[in-house]
Amino acid sequence: MSENSNISPEKPLLLVGCGRMGTALLNGWLRAGLPGNTVKILDPDAKAASSRISSIDPEYFIDRVSSLPRDFAPSFIILAVKPQMMDQALTDLKAIDSRAALFLSIAAGKSIGYFSRHLGPQAAIVRAMPNTPAAISRGITVACANPKASEKQKSVCHHLLNAVGEVEWITDEGLMDAVTAVSGSGPAYVFYLVEALAKAGEQVGLEPELAGKLAKHTVCGAGALLDQSDEDAARLRINVTSPAGTTEAALKILMAEDGLAKLMGDAVRSAALRSKELAD
To answer: Which pTM does this prediction carry?
Structure first.
């Protein structure tokens, strides 16, 4: 990353918020080769955050903006705080020189327009929606930039996000609600599938521990197979479905008119609608 992303130590990164996703990003950057001394981490519980990232000197973790050097002027400000904390975070950041900075937000529901209202019409902004597998560098992020973000700045953002998984870019910010519904919330759907499959196993006689283990490893293994295969999900499903066999019997239920496809469609539409309602 240090060779390709053009992040200069003279113009460091500022990571605002070091919770689960902030920590995942920071760990990804370090694994990708970003020097620890090129990033400052601002978090109300800086001591706890520094204890989770032992490869960075604790002096780079701060709990308030006033602790930053007076001449601090970051090139990129990554906003990883919860949406309900964003107003205060942006107010606090007015104390630093951010005129040359790009603001990269991973906060759900906070639109580019919201940031423009707080930061001014000249601010370069990228809005991104990662998901929780970023914690193991297997996430996927969709990003959208405003016209003030240069191609060079977008390239750096791509490198920063790519450190924790795949990255896709869209030009229509209105699609972010759909992105949130599919990939942002999607890991929860998969976790619930494991829960439901394990419960179904118990209902046909398996002990809870064995049912849970079978469900977990089946979903994880199937996902790994899909990831490594040249065939798509539909073909892999067909490959494992013998005519008149057990899988076909189950799929007749799951693929019925009121089956899984309808439930998933209803669920994703509900999530997208809620994302629109929460947008600011």
So the answer is: 0.90
pLDDT value for 29: 94
Q: Answer for the pair 248, 241: CB distance below 8 angstroms, yes or no.
A: yes
Give the sign of the dihedral formed by CA 89, CA 93, CA 94, CA 95. positive
Among residues 127, 147, 171, the one where a domain terminates is 171
Total domains present in the chain: 2
- Specify whether the CB–CB gap between 88 and 80 falls below 8 A: no
Q: What angle do CA 35, 41, 42 make, to 5 degrees?
A: 165
Spell out the long-range contacts of 147-155 with Cβ–Cβ below 8 A and sequence spacing 24 or more: 148/122, 148/123, 148/124, 149/102, 149/124, 149/125, 150/124, 152/6, 153/76, 153/102, 153/124, 153/126, 154/126, 155/5, 155/6
Q: Are strands 102-105 and 139-145 parallel, antiparallel or unpaired?
A: unpaired
DSSP codes of every residue in 165-178: EEEEE-S-GGGHHH
**pLDDT, tens digit, 9 for 90 and up, residues 56-95:** 999 999 999 999 988 899 999 999 999 999 999 999 999 9
Please indicate, yes or no, whether residues 62 and 152 belong to a single structural domain of this protein.
yes
Query: Which DSSP category does 94 fall into?
Result: T
- pLDDT for the residue 10: 52
User: Which amino acid type is present at position 35?
Assistant: P
- Same domain for 165 and 196, yes or no, is no
- Which parts of the chain have pLDDT scores under 50? 1-9
Distance CA 12, CA 74 (A): 5
Domain coverage including residue 222:
186-278
What pLDDT does 278 receive?
84
Q: Quick one: pLDDT at residue 160?
A: 96
**For residue 279, what pLDDT is reported?**
81
Partnered with residue 106 across adjacent β-strands are none
Tell me: do 35 and 102 sit in the same domain: yes
